[in-house]
Write a structure and sequence with these properties.
The structure holds 2 protein chains of 2 kinds. Chain A is α/β, with parallel strands linked by helices. Chain A has 6 helices and 8 strands. Chain A folds into 2 domains: 36 residues; 98 residues, no CATH class. Chain B is α+β, with helices and mostly antiparallel strands. Classes of the chains: A alpha/beta, B alpha+beta.
Chain lengths: 181, 184
């Protein structure tokens, strides 16, 4: 083997590690972008067996997270803290008003006028998702729903997030474990 | 380089791609675990709250009350309490609730287990007397709606499981009673 052949062999590049790194980076960024867009707090949702899967969520759907202590989190920002605000639910109301106004301005939320009891009411026809930990007191979720139904807010379609697996106990729905439903 | 040396070089396996693939698979399965599919319970709130001065006929609906028998004990990870904050997340530590026990009342009947509630709801849904007039489709009938009234001290898990049972029994309109306050 002469010297020129050795030199030629040395400059061959092994692309495998680079491709692997590219794949790893792709997976990383897909996950990071996905999580940030969904505005999902790390919660353990209650397991539901018979609810419909949320596999194609609408992009414009606002998501309100409720932590175990009742704190309401929107876009990773604590809006209402029961330890601070106690029974003053005005921050929740203001948040919903802001979401409504922002959605109407940006045309991400659909507004419909409906004649209810002889009076025209502007309703938001898109759903809002409430995600709460399984051990969050229902009172806090009920309060958000109460605010949603106020005529000046009028989010009348509310979705409650549940899971097909209880990450606390490890229980899974039968269809996830391969059994019949 | 002799022929023997060449042969020895060829049998050396390159472990790099295999290790890379294993890492990719580990990451893939970890991610699958994080992305547990979520489901949703649609709830439709009253559209006419505070805006309708006219009197309307009360709708017949099934009342499902959820009461607390035992509030339960929050169990935090070792070394932390309810005031501790996780520095990684900036949020309070999560607890598990132990010995939490609830009971139900479906209509006037009391029940102690979810299985009993499920069975009762299925029975009611199949009862022809549970059919009411459908306002949207005059002349037709539909299954009456149900309202889940969660009393102070109940948790989201309690209500979710009750709503799930109602959904299983084919109740389409599931409402939630409010204004019952926080636990004392």
């Amino acid at each position: 083997m002469d010297v020129s052949k050795l030199v030629q062999q040395n400059i061959e590049m092994d692309m495998t590690p680079m491709i692997d790194c590219v794949f790893l980076l792709m997976i990383f960024f897909v996950l990071v972008i996905d999580l940030s867009q969904k505005n999902l707090e790390d919660l353990i949702l209650p397991r539901a067996v018979f609810q419909e899967p949320d596999d194609k969520p609408p992009e414009n759907r606002p998501i309100i997270n409720v932590l175990q202590n009742g704190s309401v989190v929107y876009n990773q920002k604590v809006i209402y803290d029961p330890a601070v605000h106690k029974t003053d639910y005005r921050p929740i109301k203001q948040l919903l008003l802001d979401i409504r106004a922002d959605g109407i301005n940006k045309k991400t939320l659909k507004l419909v006028e409906e004649n209810i009891g002889g009076r025209m009411v502007s309703l938001i026809d898109d759903p809002i998702l409430i995600r709460a930990d399984k051990w969050t007191e229902w009172n806090y979720i009920g309060e958000i729903m109460k605010q949603c139904s106020m005529p000046e807010i009028a989010f009348w379609k509310v979705e409650l997030a549940m899971s097909e697996q209880d990450k606390e106990t490890g229980e899974k729905n039968k269809k996830l474990t391969g059994g019949a439903k | 380089m002799t022929a023997l040396e060449d042969a020895q070089e060829e049998v050396k396996p390159d472990m790099t791609p295999m290790i890379d693939v294993v890492f990719l698979m580990i990451i893939f399965f970890i991610c699958i675990d994080f992305k547990v599919l979520e489901s949703k319970l649609p709830a439709y709130l009253p559209k006419d709250k505070g805006s309708n001065p006219n009197k309307v006929d009360p709708q017949e609906q099934l009342s499902i009350k959820v009461y607390v028998d035992k509030v339960g004990t929050p169990e935090y990870p070792a070394g932390v309490d309810k005031n501790s904050v996780n520095i990684n997340t900036g949020r309070a530590y999560r607890f598990k609730l132990k010995d939490h026990k609830i009971r139900w009342e479906v209509g006037p009947k009391p029940f102690g287990t979810l299985a009993e509630v499920e069975a009762e709801l299925v029975r009611i849904a199949k009862d022809p007397n549970s059919q009411v007039a459908d306002d949207k489709h005059p002349g037709q009938k539909k299954l009456m709606s149900c309202v889940i009234e969660a009393y102070p001290g109940t948790y989201y898990d309690d209500v979710a499981k009750t709503a799930d049972a109602a959904h299983n029994a084919k109740f389409e309109e599931i409402n939630f009673g409010g204004g019952l306050g926080a636990k004392k």
